[in-house]
Amino acid sequence: MEPLEVRFARCEALAAHGYIPQATTLALQLADYLIDHLQDLSDVEEARANIINVTGNGPDTAVDSTESLIIRSERFVDMFEKALYLAHILSTDQANHAGMFTFLLSVLQCPKFPMATKYLQVKLYYLEAEIVSLLQIVSVGSREIDQLRDAAVQISSTVACQIVPPIALAHFILDRLDYAYNMCEVDQNGHQNNRVLPNHQESRGPRDGDIALKAALDALGSRSLFSEEDYPQLSEAVRRQKGELAIALLTRLVLSLIIIT
């Protein structure tokens, strides 16, 4: 077994037998290893795609690439699954929520590539949604806001050259960074609620709404750098994520118009 697998198995065993503090310590150590591993897999796939585009593929190369892609896809999804498991361990103690937030945000920021099979593609889509759900339980303070700002700027600067656009990340940033949406609430009748949320007051600024909006629009308008014919399941997943993001943007537009009127 690889060192990462051994450490992860040890972490699982500790958690299963109730040694949560020890499992949490090991989970924090494993987080950095997982991020590096995910990034390495993304870099390999990007380099492979560039080579194929430049040189083309003969039959032998195509077979080798397919087999290699299956292996890398399985490892990539496995790393996402491990990340989600570690995050569940960290979520048991609120003191570790800040570390969990940084870890999961980094996982979502790792460039993704088309998976080799429909099963792996659907599983990755599900794991990504579960990661976003865990991120939503974290109380967002000034530290997390700074991280979201950096992530939003990174999306705007890199989305055009990423194989798969980070739609889920852009949607989460919009939900947590948008100033007007988090500072003012509208009731079910559409009437403005002037109560300011105290936990968010010092963290966000009006400019954050512009940053979040730009990242969301850049992600929404990005072109996926893969063939829809070759990866129909991924195309459907991206369309669904873009549809959800578009609805979120339209909802904010309607709420802003209600507030103005």
UniProtKB/TrEMBL annotation:
<dbReference type="GO" id="GO:0031462">
    <property type="term" value="C:Cul2-RING ubiquitin ligase complex"/>
</dbReference>
<protein>
    <submittedName>
        <fullName>CSN8_PSD8_EIF3K domain-containing protein</fullName>
    </submittedName>
</protein>
